[in-house]
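Repro:
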Amino acid sequence: MRPPHVRIVGATVLAAVLVGVAGWLGWWQLEAWQARRDAEARDLTALTPVGIEEVMGPDDPFPGDQVGRPVEVSGEWLPEGTFFVSDRVVGDEQGYWAVVPLAVGGAGEPAIPVVVGWSTEPVLPEPLAGEAELTGWLQPPEGTGAVDDDPDDDVVPQLRIADAVQRVDVDLYGAYLVARDPAQDLTAAGLDQLPEVGTFTALKNLLYAAEWWIFGAFAAFIWWRWIRDQRAVDRVGDSPS
């Protein structure tokens, strides 16, 4: 029979190997889970722009998997619908988005609000009018719950379609655009929203990771119980008769 200390060392080495392998496999599954989620939350902003009609129509709900998608639109500016969105940060400065609706396809057609730039004051240096062609990033309407303290002015705390539609005489898309090229004397506005990851994306990988770690913990528990029992047996064997 092997000496007790040899059996203990052997069991300890085996337990260490099992726990190490289980821990590594769990970590591998966790990284796979994160990689798949990162892939789903991919940045669409660098894709080749497509016509907005290829992504959504004026009566369509916002396509949740197209947040940040570059689209091309052409139409006519509706300067009477211009408004500003407060508390927008560029760098370390707070300022305002300037938003002008664009009637997609021409006058009388449904319009889409376009963030044409950012400035430190709620002003649009040069009024926008006439026909336009532009590229912008598609964004879903905001709904932060912020309250407009002064409904009678042209400044709002969030870009909601329900607020914007009151300023024009046409229907609005269920989305807005952030223009790639800002209007004259304005700073380019940043994107506030990018694709969200589904709650259950790669859930199987996460469960596999937990399963491996539970197996490792179980192996460590069995080793601890075996060591405890072995020492108890050794103490009984060493006790005087």
